[in-house]
Predict the 3D structure of the following.
Amino acid sequence: MADESFDNDPALPSKIDADKPHQARVWNYWLGGKDNYPVDREHAEQLRQIYPGMEDIARHARAFLGRAVRYLAEDAGIRQFLDIGTGLPTVDNTHEVAQRVDPSCRIVYVDNDPLVLVHAQALLASDPRGACDYIEADVREPAAILEFAAKTLDFSRPTALMLLGVMGTIFDDDQAHALTRQLLDALPSGSYLVFEDGTNTIKPDAAAEAGRLHDEEQSYSYRLRTPDEIARFFDGLELVDPGVVSVSRWRVESSVFGVPDEVDAFCAVARKP
């Protein structure tokens, strides 16, 4: 249940619009968080009726983040992470997963949501042997992101670029690819791209209905891409097994319940040669 004290918190910046649902707050609600308003909870429940199981997308996407960061820190030896489109802090943020493997890991979070800025202190609770920083910026500002991130990260060393649930805000494919490439070009060989975004492949009719709801309520809009379109973001990179798959199936731990069903978010991890 949401914490009602959040609904009337006087410390929140005035530029936060509490009268219109916001993607980060809706997903926070689905993940069991408290950082959401009544309008977000109402919108989330409407989406749940239109698209049963949509909250599973949020939960599987979050679980993918944990598995990907753990793989990079444990198996690939990555100690630096640039996490763009951070979203609201929740359980097992990037720095928590990475620093459990090696406390010296360094993480820079980037988001343009003023609500994330309010809670940025939770993202900066780094192990003293490592480092965390937060930048309020938009993915459309790669030069500024890289300039500020370089104060915490050493871009001569391999770094994981994390773009999770963010490129759907860029509707133009050429622009989305150019932004991703500009960020990757600043990173050395041995760096990694971790990418995840929404699709309309598993339940296309429900996804279309959800999109119409967003339009009717003039809430947030999002560009859903096919798995093939998501795969294009990895052109020129070396995909880590199992390649581009639903977030529910990327290196999922074995379970007595079998392999999870696919959900409408696809992902991959790839190495820059």
Q: What stands out?
A: The first helix runs from residue 4 to 7. The chain has a mean pLDDT of 88. The radius of gyration is 18 Å. The CA atoms of residues 98 and 153 lie 14 Å apart.
